[in-house]
Structure formats: structure tokens, C-alpha cells
Design brief:
Homodimer. With 509 residues, this protein is α/β, with parallel strands linked by helices. It folds into three domains: 189 residues, 3-Layer(aba) Sandwich (Glutaredoxin); 184 residues, FAD/NAD(P)-binding domain, CATH 3.50.50.60; 105 residues, FAD/NAD(P)-binding domain (3-Layer(bba) Sandwich), CATH 3.50.50. It has 14 helices and 27 strands. The radius of gyration is 24 Å and the shape is globular. The N and C termini lie far apart (66 Å).
Amino acid sequence: MALDAEIRAQLTQYLQLMEGDVQIKVSAGSDAVSQDMLALVDEIVSLSSKITVERAELSRTPSFSVNRAGEDTGIVFAGIPLGHEFTSLVLALLQASGRPPKVEQDLIDQIKGIRGEYRFETYVSLSCHNCPDVVQALNIMSVLNAGISHTMIDGAAYKDEVESKNVMAVPSVYLNGEFFGSGRMSLEEILAKLGTAPDASELAGKDPFDVLVIGGGPSGASAAIYAARKGIRTGIVAERFGGQVMDTMGIENFISVKYTEGPKLVASLEEHVKEYGIDVMKLQRAKRLEKKELIEVELESGAVLKSKAVIVSTGARWRNVGVPGEAEFKNKGVAYCPHCDGPLFTGKDVAVIGGGNSGIEAAIDLAGIVKHVTVLEFMPELKADAVLQQRLYSLPNVTVHKNVQTKEITGTDKVDGITFIDRETGAEQHVELQGVFVQIGLVPNTDWLGDTVERSRFGEIVVDRHGATNVPGVFAAGDCTNSAYKQIIISMGSGATAALGAFDYLIRN
């Protein structure tokens, strides 16, 4: 396996940043994956005099470990870390060489303070754009703490293992042989699950803000930057920085940037936010908002933050179908990300619920790897763009059912079928399959507000042209509002509008 010229040139440049020697231990057999893995390792070794390789017997074959010279760092790649995981490999080489990871000091202290033996294993697919965050976070923990080890396992290379554990969503993380968590997790979230998160009292003692932004997506980041540039005390409180954009694969309509990916855009947003000394409080979910002399925001952790003005930018989440079996079989055949979880259904039968652009794009992508795709659309006609429909109907392994209502997702320990009803005739039909991908739009994250601010019948916060709500001092921006369109660039603009509106409110009050 040879790297293409562009990737090879980039890798050569990155490896020049290595600070010390690295030893790669390889466990390989005679199979094709092992041979490709050996070719990759040999090519990496040829690019730097600081990297050596030796054959070894690891717990999985094919696999290889990345270590400081003479020391076991606990980082193992089982399979070939290309695709989205190639960056994980590069970072592992740099960090094992002694180059410090780009992590805040308080997180480093938390990691180093963990006591005990923690053996993490993460099942990934190389097309998953959520997986590298988890892999890289656990690799960092392995580098910084000798009691922690981590193995990345490519599900395509270890199909039997994936089947035996019923892994039907990636990333899926196991700790000491027991299921730990699934889906994107940041380093902060992993540490919180281990019980090392900061105490809520640290938040409760904060001085009041001039502007407090609730939510860390594009609109929240934009609002915070615009507020901070006015020289006022600004904070962001968010469950996770980046919001739903972290789950977005390709972005091709962000003006002036021909193509980027969600995690890359979020990393740039966070870096920009940090330039302004904004107080970013992660892993915090808002529970209640109340207008008093100041506006009080109570968090689920129990802490109460106060601010002169608040900008709500809590975004939206995937809409659930709300039928029996959906919640029971989530990550057991019910999925929401075809890019991440699609490869786990290679050669199987799946359904896609939803005939809009996202649903039809998912069906087209899945048709290239699964045996058959059944598309279910509630309305009499598909809502997707004509060019997507034309592509869909050209595929031989896709069946489309329009004007149908999903009744139930069936299964025992995992999905085995879906039942739907023809809305015109009332006839019921059941299709046997192994996976269901839900793609039916978004619902705003505003339930926690109750009747505090005016919301539309869809739950969207009603705002005026300044981003103001019906509550003085409370503004809103992004996908949680009644904006006509839900787009990243529109969310950013509305965040800036809300921040300028909030600043104008502070001047006048």
C-alpha cells in the first residue's frame, strides 16, 4: 500500500515536528490487511530517521502499537488507520515522540491524576468523521497516563468481533471489556464519564456577565465573538462546543470555502473564540432561565449563572420518528448518521425514513455499500431536489414507498424489520431488514425554556430583526429560532445580529 504523493508530502512535513524517537511494534499475519498494514508502516518508517519498527505479538493481528523508544505508551491501531483516522495516526506519532498535545492544562492535570488501570477499545469505521475525536482523545490519555491504554479497532478488519459484540454504531467504546459509550465524545466528556469533571461550585461563584451565550454552535460562537469585540465580559455555556455541526460531514456552501468538514470548521471557530478571552464553560446544559434584576440561567449541574443580557443559541437536534422500537434499538440497528454507521451494514438490507435531501442523500450513499435500501416517505411525493431523485431512481437496489407512515421498528436484541402503513389504502406492510436510518429533519432545543419566552407552534423561539425575544435582555439566534432557513452561514449571521442587538440593549439600559 503506497500513500499518494500529496499525503506522503504532508506526512513528511508533519514528521519533521517529532521531538524524540518512536518505536512501532507490528503484529502481522499473511492476510491481505496485514500486508497492507506492513506496507504502510514501512513507508512511514522510510520518512523519518526517528522511527524504528520491530515485529511483535500483540493481542490482535493485524495491529501495531506506537511507543516512545523503550517505553509502552499503550496506543494500538488494529487495522489500517487511513481515511478519517489517518490524522489520529499522525498525532499519535507526534505525541509519542514527546510533542505535547494541544490540550488545556486543567485537562492534562485531570488525566494525570487518574489512578488505576483503564483499557479502552474503540470500534470505528474509516469513513466515520465522528470517530477520530474519540480515538485522539483516548490516545492523548494513553500518552499522559501510564495506567491508560487505548486500541482503535477498524470494524471492517474485525468483522467477526464486531458481529459478536453486536456493534451497530460507531464509535463504540469499551472500557476493561465493558461497554462505555457510543457516538462522538470529547476529551472533556470522557473525563466527565470517568468522574473527573470540575465541580459545579466553580461555576456558581462566577461574577455576572455582560453577555452570556447559551450554546456553542456557529451562531453561539459568532455571537460571543461579536460581543467580546465590544470589550464587554462575555461567556459561553454549552453542552459541547460546535453543536450539531460536529456531526456534519461535507460542507460545500460555506461561502469562500469550497469544501470543509464539520469538525474542522468547529476547531476554527473554537480557536477564534479563544482569541478574545471568552469564558467557555463546556459540558453544561441549561435548565431554566429567569428574568430578575439580572437574567439568571440555572444549569443542570445546579450552578446558577447571571448576566445582564443572554443570547440563546441552543440549536436543534435530529427529529425522532416516535414509533415503538426506535428508542429500544438505537445503536442496535437504528442510526442517524449514514456516513458513520453505514459501513457496519455492508451487504445488509436497510431502510431510510425521510424523503428530503438528507434522506435521499443517505439512501444514495448507502446503496453503494448495502444490499438493498428501502426509502419511506410520509408525503405523496419526495421532497428532495430533482437531481437527487433522478440519481436515486437510477439505482437498482433501492425501493421507494411514498405516502406511507412508519408504524414500528421490530427486533429482539437488534433490529430485524420495519412495519409501515399505506396512508391511502390503510394496508400494512412489513419488510425484513437489519438497519433503519432516520432522516426526517430537526427539532429545536428549546424545551427547557417552557413559557419563559415566546415560541412558535414548532418550538422555535420568536425573534425580531434585532434577534430580540419578547423578554427584555434575552436574545436568540440560529436553528433554535423561527429563522426561515437552517444553514450554518445564516446561523452565524443571526448570532452576530443578536450580539449587536444585545450590546445596543446594554447601552440603552
